[in-house]
């Protein structure tokens, strides 16, 4: 018994099975290499990866060998949950990763390093028999689809956590999610290399899909992405999603002729919405980008792209380390004028001393610009945080 998202009480029929073995569940096991996922088991009666399940991730995380080693060591691998969808037809509700690991081992897809021989086909007869006859603990569940989905979400919160997009795929599963995953969660998609020039994320963990959804929803907030998925849940195609995504990628490629590492993971959806109607001279834009990359005063290279798109007006995007000449000259003139009125040095630190420099007026080229609040401690590089010090005091001040 549990609670659905709307607070309704969930009751499902459950049957505990302890008679089924690894051999039973992995009979007829099929694995899709292209999609990197288990398909069927239990002689075709079991769908291992329903559309709302995550893609197989244990192989990437080097966790699948631990499942097999647990079997040989006599350790339990935890409860498995199957959803009964028809007579002699089931789908894995929880345990897809573990079942896929067991099936892949039987197919000889990987070795277990802790044991010799390492591959399944090389095991001694007794070892192979022990492995195949190991009994599993399985709950067979029956209930309405929404009850099953709510229960799926609950057990995954307690176990190896799903990420936000994987949970949303489960909640809004249907024709739209199926088509969206086929496009954006497919590691064999020929466009993936281009996409990953601009997007950070693991395609297997639905992170490319999440980015695409955030772009078309015009928001990275989970609630807004979920609202979009809910509205389109029963759509038979993903034309709007795909066209918008392709439009953003096409705009980036036409606007910037060269790809750089710092472009990955920028808020391209927001930048597209803000700037895509502007007309740009690509050659001039590229020249400005190159100049800023070569400027050691620019400490945030990622900010360069929005800076140039915005007409080079918001210098805060660049986290400039050094003051501009115009700023330094303005501050020098201001300090000098104030110092002369009171008969003190225009270097604030000399002025508080008692030696002959306490009244010295320094020329502009005898002084350096200094952050009142150190740049390394978050001080802004703007005129409000600028003071001119004599070169001796500026070198001595450091970050203090």
Protein described:
- The chain is α+β, with helices and mostly antiparallel strands and 400 residues long.
- The protein has helices at residues 22-25, 58-61, 64-73, 96-106, 125-132, 145-158, 164-171, 175-184, 192-195, 207-217, 222-231, 239-255, 268-275, 282-294, 304-309, 325-342, 348-351, 391-397; strands at 2-3, 9-10, 13-17, 30-32, 37-41, 46-47, 80-86, 89-94, 138-142, 367-371, 386-390.
- It has a seven-stranded mixed beta sheet. It has a two-stranded antiparallel ribbon with strand order 1-2.
- The chain starts with a strand and ends with a helix.
Shape: elongated
The tally of beta strands, per DSSP, is 11
SSE-based structural type: alpha+beta
Main sheet strand line-up: 3-9-7-8-6-5-4
Mean pLDDT: 86
Continuous helix count? 18
| Radius of gyration, taken over Cα atoms and rounded to an integer in Å | 31 Å
Q: How much helical structure, as a percent, in the residues?
A: 40-55%
The low-confidence runs, each spanning 5 or more residues with pLDDT under 50, are 1-7
Percent of sequence in beta strands: 5-15%
- What distance separates the N and C termini? 62 Å
**Which sheet architecture does the biggest sheet show?**
7 strands, mixed
Series of H and E elements:
EEEHEEEHHEEHHEHHHHHHHHHHHHEEH
Based on the model shown, name its key terms.
single chain; 400 residues; alpha+beta; 7-stranded mixed β-sheet; two-stranded antiparallel sheet; 11 strands; 42% helix; elongated
């Amino acid at each position: 018994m549990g609670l659905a998202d709307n607070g309704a009480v969930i009751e499902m029929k459950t049957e505990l099975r302890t008679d089924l073995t690894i051999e039973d569940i992995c009979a007829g096991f099929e694995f899709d290499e292209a999609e990197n996922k288990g398909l069927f088991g239990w002689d075709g009666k079991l769908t291992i990866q329903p559309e709302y399940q995550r893609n197989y991730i244990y192989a990437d995380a080097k966790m699948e060998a631990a499942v097999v080693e647990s079997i040989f060591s006599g350790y339990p691998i935890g409860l498995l949950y199957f959803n009964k969808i028809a007579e002699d037809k089931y789908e894995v509700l929880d345990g897809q990763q573990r079942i896929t690991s067991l099936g892949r081992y039987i197919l000889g897809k990987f070795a277990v390093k802790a044991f010799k021989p390492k591959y399944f086909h090389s095991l001694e007869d007794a070892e192979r028999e022990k492995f195949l006859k190991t009994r599993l603990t399985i709950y067979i569940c029956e209930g309405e689809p929404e009850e099953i989905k709510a229960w799926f979400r609950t057990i995954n919160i307690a176990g190896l956590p799903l990420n936000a997009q994987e949970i949303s795929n489960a909640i809004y599963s249907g024709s739209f999610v199926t088509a969206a995953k086929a496009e954006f969660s497919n590691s064999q998609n020929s466009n993936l290399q281009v996409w990953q020039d601009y997007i950070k994320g693991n395609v297997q963990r639905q992170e490319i899909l999440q980015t695409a959804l955030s772009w078309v929803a015009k928001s990275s907030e989970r609630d807004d992405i979920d609202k979009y998925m809910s509205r389109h849940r029963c759509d038979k195609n993903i034309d709007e999603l795909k066209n918008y995504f392709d439009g953003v990628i096409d705009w980036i490629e036409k606007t910037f002729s060269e790809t750089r590492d710092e472009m990955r993971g920028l808020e391209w959806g927001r930048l597209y919405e803000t700037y895509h109607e502007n007309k740009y001279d690509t050659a001039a834009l590229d020249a400005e980008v190159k100049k800023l990359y070569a400027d050691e005063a620019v400490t945030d290279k990622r900010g360069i792209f929005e800076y140039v798109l915005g007409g080079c007006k918001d210098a805060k995007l660049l986290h400039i380390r050094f003051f501009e000449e115009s700023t330094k000259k303005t501050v020098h003139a201001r300090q000098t004028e104030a110092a002369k009125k009171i008969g003190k040095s225009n270097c604030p630190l000399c002025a508080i001393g008692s030696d002959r420099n306490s009244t010295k007026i320094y020329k502009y080229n005898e002084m350096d610009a200094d952050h009142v609040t150190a740049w390394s401690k978050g001080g802004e590089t703007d005129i409000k945080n600028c003071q001119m010090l004599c070169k001796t005091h500026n070198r001595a001040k450091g970050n203090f």
